[in-house]
Amino acid sequence: MNSVPSHRSALRAVVLATAFLVTLPACDRSDAGDTPSALSADTATIAPAPPAPDGIAPPAAAAEVAALDYLTFAQGAVPISIGGAGAGLGANFEHAVRLIDGNPVSFTFANQTGPNTDTEFVYELPAPTTFTRFAVPNVQETPSPSQTFTREVEVYGSTTGPDGGWTLLASATLQTHDEPGQVTELPLVATTPVRWVKVRLVGGIALLSERMFFEFSEIVGNGTQEVPALVDHFQGIWKGRGVLMELKQDGATVTGCYDDGTELNGTVSGNILRASGVDPDDGALGLFVLSVVGEGVLRGVRSSNGGPFRLYTGPPAPGGTTTACSYIPEPQLGCGSIIHGITFDFDSARIRPDSEPVLADLFEGLQAAPDASIVLVGHTSSEGAEAYNQALSERRAQSVVEDLVRRGIDGSRIRAVGKGEAEPIAPNDDESGRSLNRRVEVVCS
Known about the structure:
Strands 3, 6, 7, 8, 9, 10, 11, 12, 13 and 14 form a ten-stranded mixed beta sheet that branches. This protein has an eight-stranded antiparallel beta sheet with strand order 15-16-17-18-19-20-21-22. A four-stranded mixed beta sheet has the order 23-26-24-25. By secondary structure, it is mainly beta. It has helices at residues 93-98, 356-367, 386-407, 431-437; strands at residues 2-4, 8-10, 20-23, 43-45, 64-66, 78-83, 107-113, 118-137, 147-158, 167-173, 182-186, 194-204, 212-216, 220-225, 236-240, 243-250, 253-258, 262-269, 272-278, 285-293, 297-304, 310-314, 338-339, 374-379, 414-418, 439-444. Helix content is 11%, strand content 38%. The longest helix has 22 residues, at 386-407.
C-alpha cells in the first residue's frame, strides 16, 4: 500500500480495473453540509489529492464527494430480490436494506459460507439514474476467526427489468482498511442510466476456516437522477408478522394507523412514504420509511421510540380485514402537519419540481384556515456545520413561504423559522433517520 498526502492513500486491487482507497478526513464543520431532500446542505468537500506515487491515479470522485447517495432506501432504492448461494445461507431483506442504509457499520449477512459464496441483492430505483461513483466504506475485520469482510464487490445496472439485461457498472476486490474512516472507491466500467441495480458480493478477505460468516458495511452510489414520478399505491391494509397498517393516500398526503390504532400521518416523495405517529397510551414515537413493491407488498423500515430502524414488511391483508382507523377522514396537509417531501436543488434554497404535489396539497389545506397565523419551521439532519445548517434551514423555509404566497396565501399571516439540526425526531445514524429529520412543520395559531 502506498501513502498519499492530504489524508489519502491508494490501494491497488484488480477485478476488471483498479480500486482506490480514500481516507476521509475528520468532518470539518465549517464546510460540510447536510444532504439534500429537505432543508439542509448537500456536500462534504475534500481537498484535492496530489498525484499518487507509482502511477496509481487518485479516485475520480476524490476532489469533491457529493453527499446525495441515490443507492439508499431513503432515496427510493427498494430491495426486490435476493439471489446467489447466500440467499440460502441467511441473506434476507433486512440485510438488503442495511446494505444501502447510509450507515457504514458492518453487519453479518450470510452464515456458514464457503470461500467463494456469492450473494446478489437487486434494487429498483424510482427513476433513471446515472451513477458516477460507487464506494465501500469501513472495510474492517471483526476480531473473530469465524467472521470476515466480503472480498469482491460487483455492481450491475439494467434498463429492462430485475431479471436480465445487466451491464457491469463497477467492480473491485477489497482489502482491509488500515484504520476506520477509509473508503474504497470502485472503478467505473460504464456510466449509463439504469432503473435496476444488482450488487453482487463474493467470498471473504480472511478465510481462516472452511465455513465463515460474511460481513459487509454499505455500498454508496453517487450520480444524477431524473425526477421520480409520484406513486399512488399507499392505499389499503397490510397485515403480516408484526405488521398491521392501514393507509389512505390523496396526492402526496397520507393518513392511516398502525398496531392497535395509533394514528399515522406522512407525505410521499417519488416512491417513498415518510410518516410518523405517537401512541396515545404511552407516548411512544413511531417513525416509518415505506415503499410498496411487487404484488402490493409493503416494504420499509420502522423505528420505535428512538430505537434503530428495522425491517417492516407485510403483504396486503385478506379481504374483509379492518383496523381501528378505518373511520379516518381523507388525508390533508395543513396546520399541524409534518412534511418530509419538499426537496431542493444541490446546496441551494431553490425548490425542486418534484415538490409540486406536496406544495399544492399544503396550499389547499392552508386555505381551509383563512384566519390562522402560520409559521413554517424548517429542520435539518446533523450532517455538516451546525451554523450552516441553521442558516440554510431558514433560507429553505423562506422559499416555501414565498411559494405559498405566490399561490395565494396572504404574506402578512405566514413566516419562516429555521431550527437547523437542534430538534431531531429520529436517530441520525442512517439515511432513513436523517431523511425524517429533514422536515417542515406547520404551526398555526
